Amino acid sequence: MYPKLKWSAEEFSSFRLKTDPLADNVIRSIISTSETEKVNGIFSHLRDNMEVDIQQLPPIVRTYFEETAVLPSWIDQEKIKIGQKVFATYGPEISLCLLCKSLPEAYACANGAKVLYATGRMTEQNGSLNVFTRRLMETAQFVVNVCSPGGLDPKGSGIVTAQKVRLIHAAVRYYIKKHGSWPKAYGEPINQQDMAGTLQSFSTLTLQGLERLDIQLSEEEKEGYYHCWRVAGHIVGLEEELNPPTHQEGLALGEAILADQVKPSAEGHALTMAVCDFMTEMLPGNIFKHTPEVIIRYLVGDKIAENLQLDDETNLIDKIVPRFMGFLFHTSEEVENKSHFFEKIIQHLNLHLLQGMLNHFNENKQVRFYIPPDLRNDWNLD
Fold it and tell me: Can you give 64-91 as a three-state secondary structure string?
């Protein structure tokens, strides 16, 4: 049983009206005191550089990076090492859960999906996936930076990335409210509840996905992996009461947010289909066509899959089984064991997907997707 949440329904909903005053004030100050070209230059510097030279930034932004680099008193470096070892061992599977569970579950939360869609960073009017793929790369890089050895050390890449994400969230909030009519019924853009849901989707709900893939972690390993993301949550401006100390409490919170926010939306469906298109583009040939939809349904469960308007399981499996039979089993009998079937598919899909992402972003692209050499060796990536 998960721990019971301590808020009433009204109190829980009130987190949708809260944002991040510290980062919001920084953004308002930058915009009020700088020309448009200078503001664009600041964000280009933050977006395009893995490391941030704060001496090149305006004083208020320098102060922001210094203040938000302070780590919480409860940080536990031993837990972080355990969590990062989990990532070193199961990184490909965690990456798959990110694409096929974490993001689709976030998109199933209709109000939050409207923010992602409204920013224009996820989809483009001409149908191109360029902006969308860049956003996915940024998200994947955030995960790698937080979970890689040294990422949560002082001035580590995970901390710097979380600081940048926090500032970008504030900028998105500012421009959505300034340049459009944002309905109050949705709550504030990128509010505290949505931030908490995102953090759990990267941590406890990902651990839930690993269990669905028959990867059994110890309680110590689960707490370690969750602790890495709890530190990241502190850096990105999540309020302490929405950043619980244990993975069991975190999972209860994540499940409660899904129960409160999941409902069908055109935006959620469009974003999920864009993930499927992205994965299909990253994978070799056409053997994996429709496979992302099958894996998403398998990992998120039927209820969320229905809210995302995915095809039903029978139709999807009928589409992929003929292509996989010869490739994986050389016989049709194996499909009778569905768990074994998914296990086989995922074994082949994981590394193909990560390798495809590395090739896509790092060949003749301005954006780089960086995986540390030790992790590339652990995962047998070229």
Answer: HHHHHCCCCCCCCHHHHHHHHHHHHHHH
Distances (CA, A) of 210 to 33, 100, 110: 47, 12, 25
Query: What residue spans of the chain are helical by DSSP H?
Result: 9-14, 21-33, 36-48, 59-68, 77-97, 103-108, 110-118, 130-147, 157-179, 192-202, 204-212, 219-235, 247-261, 266-282, 291-300, 302-307, 313-324, 338-362, 373-378
- Given the structure tokens 């040939």, which residue do they identify? 285
SS3 of 264-276: the string is CCHHHHHHHHHHH
292 has a pLDDT exceeding 90: no
Alpha-carbon distance of 252 to 208, in angstroms, equals 12
Contacts of 332 (CB under 8 A, 6+ apart): 321, 325
Least confident of 9-18, 51-60, 71-80: 51-60
| Side-chain-facing half-sphere of 183: CA atoms under 13 Å | 7
- CA 91 to CA 39: how far, in whole Å? 36
Nearest to residue 148, comparing CAs of 81, 92, 201?
81
pTM value is 0.89
Q: Tell me the torsion sign for CA atoms 348, 351, 357, 359.
A: negative
* Token digits of residue 65: 């990076």
Strand partners, 262: 109
* Interatomic CA distance for residues 13 and 16, integer angstroms: 6
Q: Is 109 helix (H, G, I), strand (E, B) or coil?
A: strand
- Which residues, listed in sequence order, are joined to residue 109 by a DSSP beta bridge? 262
pLDDT at 211: 94
pLDDT band at 331 (very low <50, low <70, confident <90, very high): very low
Residue type, 294: V
**Domains of the chain by residue range:** 1-382
Q: CA-based angle 112:116:122, to the nearest 5?
A: 150
Coil, strand, or helix at residue 156? coil
Digit-coded pLDDT (tens) for 278-290 = 888 887 766 677 7
Show the CA angle centred on residue 345, arms to residues 213 and 247, nearest 5°: 20
Q: Return left, alpha or beta for 337; rule: phi > 0 is left, psi -120 to 50 is alpha, else beta.
A: beta
